[in-house]
Design brief:
Helices cover 47% and strands 9% of the residues. With 340 residues, it is mainly alpha-helical. Helix 2 crosses helix 3 and helix 2 runs antiparallel to helix 4.
Length: 340
């Protein structure tokens, strides 16, 4: 029994000494961190995708505080409001400081008013208050105009962007020059004669290099063509970087936006000989667009998503069906309009 009590006492004293040593060491070796890093980290999406060029959001926040990175380098959905908040944090103008400053100014004004005892000081104070009210009114009007403009821009262009494959040449539509087996990547396919078996040199090769680099399982291969799930895509850009034919592009994350699925810049006849879904550059989509959000560049249409209202007329009029609506919303609305 005596040995047991000695062992328990020894263990307790050892634990107490270890705790004291750790506490003292923590105080001695404490490293003070910049609180702005945590505040900026809270403004970032937290995906740790590496699209900004840094290992994660923590490293990116530290780089912003150290002024070795810009606040707008994040590609995973950070909005203008977050960027503005980060700039204010770097300037030391966060919301708590602004509120404290406002309370201090209000308290100072009340004290000045209580000290005014004669008519002259009251008149000066009245003039000062009138001027302050006019300035406040002007500031509120300017702020209201800025907020209205920001809301209009937010309604026009969604903040989040996703990737999509600008090619519709699957096994049913695109022709092949020959058959090959044992190819494991798009880079290997480019080393084959004529840069691969696909007749169109502008299209998706379909050997899944983009699938291997996607960390969110947002990409799959269907009928020899890469397909990106917009709900899973975080816009990290790794698939676009690795694509050897550069057919992966970005677009706003609205499910009913139309997509142009052709990257062939050749003229009409040559395009139709190798792919039934290829754009012939006829320009019918430009003429049918009511908002003039489509332009023709290098024989291919380009959509300005800031002007696009997703009416679906370009999709309906396109003779090659290379403007698509993968979610079926535009097609459904057009059918309803025709029935009415």
């Amino acid at each position: 029994m005596e040995m047991f009590l000695m062992a328990v006492s020894f263990a307790g004293i050892s634990g107490l000494l270890a705790g004291l040593i750790l506490g003292v060491a923590g105080k001695i070796f404490y490293v003070k961190t910049d609180e702005r890093v945590e505040m900026i980290r809270n403004e970032l999406p937290g995906n740790n995708c590496g699209g900004c060029g840094y290992a994660g959001c923590d490293d990116y926040a530290s780089a912003i505080v150290e002024k070795s990175a810009r606040p707008d380098m994040c590609t995973a959905g950070i909005g203008p409001e977050n960027i503005e908040n980060i700039k204010n944090i770097l300037k030391g103008k966060n919301e708590n400081m602004l509120a404290e400053k406002a309370r201090y100014e209000a308290q100072t004004m009340r004290e000045d008013q209580s000290m005014c005892k004669d008519q002259s000081m009251r008149e000066d104070q009245s003039m000062y208050e009138d001027q302050s009210m006019r300035e406040d009114q002007s500031m509120r009007e300017d702020q209201s105009m800025c907020e209205d403009q920001s809301k209009r821009e937010a309604r026009t262009i969604p903040e989040k962007q996703v990737m999509y494959v600008k090619c519709g040449g699957n096994c049913d539509a695109a022709k092949s020059k020959y058959k090959c087996y044992g190819i494991n990547s798009c880079e290997e396919a480019l080393l084959l004669p004529n840069k691969g078996p696909k007749a169109c040199k502008f299209g998706c090769l379909g050997y899944g290099s983009c699938v291997k680099v996607c960390e969110n399982d947002a990409i799959s291969i269907y009928k020899g063509l890469a397909v990106i799930d917009g709900d899973k895509c975080i816009n990290c850009g790794k698939c676009r970087q690795i694509c050897p034919t550069h057919v992966i592009h970005g677009r706003p994350f609205l499910k009913n936006f139309p997509e142009i699925v052709c990257s062939n810049t050749d003229k009409g006849k040559g395009v139709k000989e190798i792919c039934s879904r290829g754009c012939i550059g006829c320009g019918i989509c430009l003429k049918s667009c009511s908002t003039q959000c489509i332009i023709l560049k290098d024989n291919l249409p380009e959509i300005d998503y800031g002007k696009c209202t997703a009416c679906g007329l370009c999709l309906e009029k396109c003779p090659s069906k290379c403007i698509v609506d993968k979610n079926g919303l535009l097609t459904y609305n057009l059918r309803r309009a025709n029935d009415i």
